[in-house]
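In line with agreed milestones, the collection of sequences with tokenised folds has grown. One record among many is set out beneath this paragraph:
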Amino acid sequence: MAPPASTDRFPAVSSTGRVWECQGKYLDLSRPGVMGILNITPDSFSDGGFFLSAQKALDQGRRLAEEGAAIIDVGGESTRPGARPVSVEEELDRVIPVIETLARELPIPLSIDSSKPAVMAAAVRAGAGLINDVNALRADEALAVAAELQVPVCLMHMQGEPRTMQHNPSYVDVVDEVGQFLAGRIAACVAAGIDRQRILIDPGFGFGKTPRHNLTLIKHLADFADLECPILVGVSRKSTIGAILDRPVEQRLAGSLALTTLAVVQGAALVRTHDVAATVDVLRMLRAVEDV
């Protein structure tokens, strides 16, 4: 897989050329943007328990928007290695009140970070404008529900499932295998009636992958351009950064920003992060260089 030809010095910074309507709000992918993370969970690897109350979650959502997020990703179930499953009812109780309020207040779209069709449907009814599924719509009825909802979707690669994915991840060629998986899921979405022009893909940094696998995916991210869908990358504070830099979660900003920069130059259209303000600054500097 090879990146598209371009005369831009930094072709990835302006290669997508798309503006998506998301429940009456707009996500501009004509240049790379930031997806702010809002985890309403007690056990997420970085910010678990910080925003579990509705009021704290709302305050954080407003803060992410003020810092320049293009979209806010709201999740009610941790997908860190070893995290416990959450019932549909518990997940709904966490995310729906927050989505309803933020959808009324904020000018930017929201996404629902869930693999459960019932949660996807309720979240979109509450105002979410994009479905972000780490399971790539493989759950029973997920494809049919997403097609009926008619909002953009993000399909992520994951080897295994969150509880066991880091036990022994193994690939012959991680770039090719992730690409083949995503191509198959794109085809399944199109067959189910989902518009190909409204599909994001995510190679799944940290989901069933060793540090070497993760770094290889970043190095060869431009190869995924052949799939002709915008690319989302989520590297924020992840364990690969800790393994390389020997830093705890709260000291991984520099590593996160380094990988974010590489991802954007390699073709990422959207970067998912806990640290919105700093990541927005990185993108502004890249744009300043491109615009000279």
